[in-house]
Amino acid sequence: MELIDYQDDGHFFSGHVACAGCVEALALRVILNTVGSDAMAVVAPSCSAVICGGYPASALKIPVFHTTLESAAASASGVKRGLVAQGKTETTVVALAGDGGTYDIGLQALSSAAERNEDILYICFDNEGYMNTGGQKSSSTPKSAVTGSTPAGKETSKKNMVEILAAHRIPYIATTSPGDLNDMAAKVEKAKAIRGTKVIIVLIPCLAGWGVVDDGAVKTARLAVDSGVFPLLEVFGGHDYVLNKTTKNQPINDYLKQQKRYRHMSVEQIASLQAEVDEQWQRIQKRVEVSSGFEA
Amino acid sequence: MVATDKQQASPLWTTTTSEVRLTGTWREAKPDYHVAPSPCHGACPVQGDIASWIQQVSRSEYYGAWLTLMENNPFPAIAGRICHHPCETACNRQQLDETVGICSLERFVGDMALTQSWALPAIKQDDDCSVAIVGGGPAGLSCAYQLRRRGFKVALYEARDQLGGLMRYGIPSYRLDRAILDAEIERIIDLGIDLHLEVELQDQAALKRLHKEYDAVYLATGASQSKNLPMLDYQQPWVLDSAAFLAAMSHGQNMLLGERILVIGGGSAAIDTARSARRLGKAVTILALEPEHLLPAQTIEVTEALEEGVEFVCGAMMQSTQVKDKGVQLHCVKVDFSAGAERGEFAIDVLTGSEFNLVADTVIPAIGQQVDMDRWAGLLAADQGLAQTDQGWQTSCRGIFAGGDMASMDRFVTHAVGMGKQAAQAISHYLRPHTEVAQVKTEKPVGFEAINSYYYPISKRQKQKQTELETRLDGFSEVQQALSDHGAMIEAGRCFSCGTCTYCDNCFYHCPDMAITKLATSEIDGSPNRAQSGPSRGIGYSIKSDYCKGCGLCVAECPTGSIIMREDTGCSTKQESCS
Amino acid sequence: MTTNNDGTLLSGNHAVAWGVKLARPDVAPLYPITPQTPILEKIIELQDKGLMTVELLTPESEHSAMAAAIAASLTGARVFSATSSQGLLLMHELLHYAAGARAPIVLFNVNRTPASPWGFWPDQLDSLAQRDTGWIQLYSETPQESLDTTIMAFAIAEAANIPVMVNHDAFYVSHAVEAVRIPDQQWVDQFLPPLQLEHKLDTQTGRSFGAPIDQAAWNRSRREMCDAMTKVESLVSQTGQRWGALCGRNYGPLEHYRTAQADVLIVTMGSMCGTVREAVDEMRQQGQSVGLIKVRLFRPLPGAALREALVGVSTVLVLDRNYSPGMGGILHQELKSALFGMEKAPQIHGLLAGVGGVNVAAEHIQRWVSQYAQAEACVDSIWVE
After folding, report:
1. Which of C199, C223, C232 to mutate to test the interface with B (most CBs of B within 10 A)?
2. Peptide bond into A138 cis (omega under 30)
3. Residue A25: closest C-alpha in chain B
4. Which residue in chain B is spatially nearest to C217 when comparing CA positions?
C-alpha cells in the first residue's frame, strides 16, 4: 500500500470553519504544508477565504492577504514584486482562488499574470460552481449539472481551463485531486521549485453543492479521475502534456451516482456526457502523443 | 474627534490562530479506533492473529511475526504446508481479486524460524501443578506446548515410538517433510516435557492412575479405528486399510499388492493414499461418492493428484466385488450426491442403469476413522461416538480433558492444534482459577465493505512453486516449494489487515481538521514504498475532541476497517485513543 | 530636456514621473490611459536609462494594477501607480480596499471626463466621485506642484497609513510644459526615509490581513480610519512646511492668494486656480478686494482652516470643474457643509464652471464676481458660461 508521504509541519490549523468532511480544507492542509514556512498566501473570496480567515484568527501559519474576487493573480503578483523589491526573492507566493475567481471573474487577471510569467503558484480550488454563495453555476460547471442557477441542468460544457492556460505557455500547469494526496503534494513540490507562473487546478467535490455524503468527497474525487471526467495532468511550457493516470477504467455513471446534482439525468444525457468525456480523453491522448517528453 | 479606544487591537490584522475555535462542538458522531476480528481470524481453528503477523512480515519483522504465530500454534512450518486454510476461504481479498496466500506466508515464517534456529522466550516461572497428556499428535503436542509455556509440569505419553500422530503416520512426506515435522516437535519437547514414548494407556485403571498422579489429564488419543464399508470384506488380502498403509509408508514399508490400486473415498486420506501409491509406480483410481467439485479434500490436492496421473471416478459408489483371474472386479454405480447441512452429512440417490465395473489388484478404503469409546465406558461419557466434553473440553470426569479427533469430527490437523490450545487454556484455568480466562472475541468480523479497496491495486496471489511433475513421482520429496523472500513480501502486502490497524497514517492525513494526533512516532518503517525523507509514522492515534467535526473521512479512508463512527453525545471531552 | 537656472522644462506628467523617481518606490504597477500615459512612459524611460530601480508591473487593467499595488504595499514596499478617468473608475472597488487595508500607496490621477459620452477633457468628477473611498485627495495646479506633491504624498501616506491620490487636470497641467526645479535626490532621501510599516505581511509574524470580520470589528476599523483622517490636515501642513524648509516651496492644505481684507473669495481646485490668480490680479488692480482660496487638500476637507479663511468675507464663489448630477458642484456642496453653523457665514455661490473641460478665461471670472458679489446666494449650483 502506498503511504502518504508529505510532512505535516502544522502549517494549517484546526478550528477552521470548513464544513465537516470538506476536502478543500484537506487540500489546503496538503498544499500549505508542502509550500512550507517561507511563503505567503493571497486568498480570493471563496470557501478558502472563509476557511482561512475569521478575524481575529487565521487558520494559516503563513501570512495571508485576503483580496477581492477578481484579483487573486494580480494581488499575488503584487506580493511577489513587493517581496522581490525588498530582496526576499525566495519566498513562495501562493494564490488560492475558487473556480469563480479563476474561470470567471478572475480570468483576466490570471491571464495577465500568466502572460507576464509572474513568479507565483496559483491554486484553483475547482468545485465547479459558486458554492460559497449557495451553489450557482460558473463557467466551470459541467454540462447537465444542476445548480441554483441551472435548475434543469447546465446546457453548456465546462470551460477547459487547462488549454486556456496552456495557450499562455507558462512553465507548469497541473490538475490534482484530494483523491490522491501524494499526487497533490508532489505537484505542489514540483511547482514550488519552478520560477514563473504555475497553476494547479484541484478538483473539490463539494458536499453541499454537489450533493455528496459527508465522508464521500475523497471517493468522489477518485471516481472523477478514474472515469476520465477529471484527468490528472501536467503541462510543461504549455505544450508538453503528461497524463499521470493513464487508464480510464470507470464509466462516468459510477461518478455521477455519487452526486445529487446529476440525479435527474436520463440515459441519453449520461451517454452524451460520457461521449464528451471520451472525446476529451482522446484529445489529451493526442496532446500527450505529440509531446516531446520534456519535464521541468 | 477620537473614535477608538487604543487599548484594543486593530481589527485589520489577525492576532491568533483558528485553534481558538473549538469546532468539535459541531460533531454528532465520533470516530473510534477499535481492533475487530478479521474474517480469517474468525475462521482460523487456532484463532491465530493472522492480520497481525502478516503485517509484521510486511514490515520485515520476521521474528516478531513468528512469535505472534507461536502464540497460538507451535507448528507454523507444518500448518503452512498442510493446513486446510479456512482462513483463506474467509479472506476478504477474494472479493477484490484473489484470497491472500496465508498458508504460504505461514510456511515462509515457520521455515525461517527453523533455518535460523529461532528460540522461544524462556519460561518465566515454573508451576508445581502437573498435567499428563496422553497422545503425541497435534492436539496433545499443542496442549503440552501451551501448558509448558505457562510453567506447568507436563508429562507426555505416546503409544508409538515417535511423536506426531497423524502428522507423521497419516500425512506423506511429499506434503510434509519429516525434517520439518521433527524440528517443530523437538522445539516443543525442548521446553522441558517429561516424555514417555511407547507407553500405551492400557485400560481404565491406567487412566485412573494418571488422574491420581497428575493434577489434570488431557486425552488426545485420536480416532484409531477405521470405518468399514459394509459391502467390502476386510478379511480379503486385497483389501488394505488406508491408515495402516500410510503408517507403513511413513516407515518406508510398502504393503501394496499388484499394480492396479483402487482407493475409495474423497478426503485427504484418500488422496494421500492414492498419491503415495503413484509414487510406488502403481496405476491408481479414486472412487468417490462426491462429484469432483464437492470432494472433501483440498482443491490443490486433487489438482496435484490429477497432475500425477491419479484417475478419479467421482459421483459413484461400489456395490459389490467379485474376484476374477486377473484382479478384483468392483461393480459400481453412479449416484446423485447432495451434501447435508452438517459437515460429513450427505444423501445419495443411486442412478439406476448407470452401472459400470472397475478392476483392481488392491482396494484401499479411506472413508474415515472413528473413536473406540467403549474402552472408557463407565469412566468417560460418550456422545455420538466421541468423548463428551463441555465447552472447556472437560470430560464427564472432573480433571480429565479430551480433544483432537477423539472429541471432534473436525478432522483437521489445525483443528486439533486449536483444540489443544483451548484445552490448555481451560486446564490452566482449572488449575489456577484466578490466572486465566479464555479470551473470546465476540465482535463481528470486519466485512469487505469496511475495507477501502482503493488502497489495494489488483494484484494476483503469489503462487508457490511446485516440484516439476517429472521428478515428483520419483520419490517422496515435497511438492510445494516455499515463497521467495520477495514473493512473501508481495504476498504480505496484499493483506487488507482487516480490523487491525497498520499505522499507515491515512486517518491522520485525511483529516481536514487536523483532529487526529499521532500518539508516538516511529522512524522505523519497512514499507518498500517509504520515501527516504518521509514523515515519521504514527504508532497509535487519538482523536482531538476539540476539533473533530465527525465527518467520517478517517473511517472511509481507513484501508483496514479499524475505525468506526459512534454516536457522540458530546458529554465527554477526554481523548480516546488506540495504541 | 532643457535646463536652465530656472529649472527644467517639463510637462506636468513628466514632472510627476520625476517626483516618483526621487521618491524611490519599490513597486509600480502601471496601465496606460490618455492623458496619464506620459507618466508611465517617463517612469519606464527613467528605469530603462538606469536612473531608477523599481519593480514595474504592466498588468492588463487598472483594476489589476491597483490590486497589485495594495498587495505589494502590504509587504512593506513603497508603491506608486497612476491613472485617469475610466481607469480610476475601474479601480473604484480597490480604492475602498486600499484604504481599508491602510496601504500607504500613492496614486497619481490625471483628471479627465468620465464616459459617457467619451471625452478626454479636464474635469474632476473622476476623482471627486472617489471621495468616499477613504483616500486622501490632493489637487495640484502646476507641474512643479505636481512634482513636489508627489513626493510629499508618500510622506503623508506613510505617516497616516492612508493612501493618497494626487490629481492634476488633463492637458492644462498634464501636458503643459514649464520650467520645473527637480530637487536633489539627497534632499528627497532626507525628507523621505525608507518605508517602515508597523503591520505588514511578514513570514516572521505570520499575521494576516483581510480575514472576514464581524460587525463590531468592521465598525471599529472605520473608527480607526476616522481617527487617522482627523490628523491628516495638520500632517499635510507639517509635511508642506518640512518640504518648504528643504527646497523653499511651501505647501499647505489651502493656499491663500491675495486674501488680505478680501470681501470676495474665489474657492477652487486644480488648474482653474491659475486663471483665477490672473482674474484676482486684474480685479485687485481695479480696486476690488478679491482673493483666491486654493483647496489643495480636498479629502479630508480642511473645514476649520476654511472657516477661518472665510471669516469676515461677505461672498464666496466656488468654481466647480465637475458636476454631480442631481446635486451640483461637489466642492460647493462640501464647502456649504464645512461652514455649517458658522456665525456670519458668507454668501456661497456655486458656479459650475468649466465642466467637461470648456475654457474658463479670466474675464469670465471677473464677470461672475461682479454678477454674484452682491447677489443673494441660492442653495443650488449654477451653470455659468
Report:
1. C223
2. no
3. B512
4. B11
| DSSP label at residue C125 | H
Q: What is the H or E stretch that residue B318 is in?
A: strand B316-324
Interface confidence (ipTM) of the complex: 0.96
Question: Mean pLDDT across chain B, nearest whole number?
Answer: 89
What H or E segment, with its residue span, contains residue C350? Answer: strand C347-352
Domain ranges of chain A: 23-290
Neighbours of chain B (3+ CB pairs under 8 A): A, C
| Touching A: B residues 515-534, CB under 8 Å | 515, 527, 529-531, 534
Which pLDDT tens digit goes with each residue over B349-370? 999 999 999 999 999 999 888 8
Q: How many percent of chain C have pLDDT more than 70?
A: 99
Record the cell numbers describing residue C70, joined without a space. Answer: 495594495
Sign of the C-alpha dihedral, residues C91, C97, C98, C99? positive
- Measured CA to CA, the distance from residue B327 to residue B262 in angstroms comes to 11
| CATH dotted code for A23-290 | 3.40.50.970
Residue C261 neighbours by CB distance under 10 Å: 9
pLDDT tens per residue, range C61-87:
999 999 999 999 999 999 999 999 999
C80-84 vs C27-29, strand pairing mode: unpaired
Kindly determine whether residue B455 and residue A1, on different chains, have CB atoms separated by under 8 Å: yes
Residue A267 buriedness (CB in 10 A; 0-12 / 13-18 / 19+): exposed
Quote the radius of gyration of chain B (alpha carbons, Å). Answer: 29
3-state secondary structure A162-194: HHHHHCCCCCEEEEECCCCHHHHHHHHHHHHCC
Q: Please state which CATH number belongs to domain C254-383.
A: 3.40.50.920
- Residue C324 burial (10 A CB sphere; 0-12, 13-18, 19+): middle
Residue in A2, A13, A21 closest to B553 by CB: A21
At B517, is the secondary structure helix, strand, or coil?
A: strand
At C293, list the grid cell: 482660496
Question: Of C190, C185, C150, C247, which Cα lies nearest the Cα of C51?
Answer: C185
Of residues B554, A227, A72, B400, the one with CA closest to residue C59: A72
C-alpha cell at C36: 496619464
The structural domains of chain B, ordered by start, are: 18-35+501-578 (3.30.70.20), 39-119+443-493 (1.10.1060), 130-224+371-431 (3.50.50.60), 227-369 (3.50.50.60)
Q: First vs last Cα of chain B: how many Å apart?
A: 62
| Environment class of B352 (CB within 10 Å of its CB; exposed 0-12, middle 13-18, buried 19+) | exposed
CATH tag, C3-245: 3.40.50.970
Classify B311 as helix, strand or coil: strand
Domain-wise residue ranges, chain C: 3-245, 254-383
